[in-house]
UniProtKB/TrEMBL annotation:
Reaction catalyzed: D-gluconate + ATP = 6-phospho-D-gluconate + ADP + H(+)
Keyword Ubl conjugation on entry: no
Family: Belongs to the gluconokinase GntK/GntV family.
UniProt protein name: Gluconokinase
Uppermost EC category: transferase
InterPro entries cross-referenced by the UniProt entry: P-loop_NTPase, Shikimate/glucono_kinase, Therm_gnt_kin
PANTHER family: GLUCONOKINASE-RELATED
Amino acid sequence: MTVIVVMGVSGSGKTTVGTAVAQRLGVDYAEADTFHPPANIAKMTAGHPLTDADRAPWLAEIAKWIAAHQDSGGVVSSSALKRSYRDVLRGGGAVWFLHLHGARELLAERMKTRSGHFMPVSLLDSQLADLEPLQPDEPGRTFDLAQSPAELVDAALSAFREHA
């Protein structure tokens, strides 16, 4: 089965949408942040962007999760900012990318108002600078995060079913 990767920069709503999509499909959900080694969390908390080398073990762990869910399906979040990162995730098996994208101002406001998350707003611009949009040959679709979570979930599931 195909695993849905909910992707986007910090504050885009990956957890909210990903959890709801997984519930609607009746499959497991995994939060990408739980795959980060403590050094990555500490680095981001201190306001330093991750490098490709920092992200490599994190992406490998998410790819392992994807591989383990090829029979049952699943939903996992991941910023998946660069195509090369998405290539690593695709190495785990069949995936479909649900890209949540929107205005910087909305993203920053969301980041400022959420509690209990390590990612500071100061890192948003570095994530946006690294973001490479989905290419036509990558399975998935981009959705405007200005929509409500319920609208996003409905639209994403409709698009995913068209793909399947």
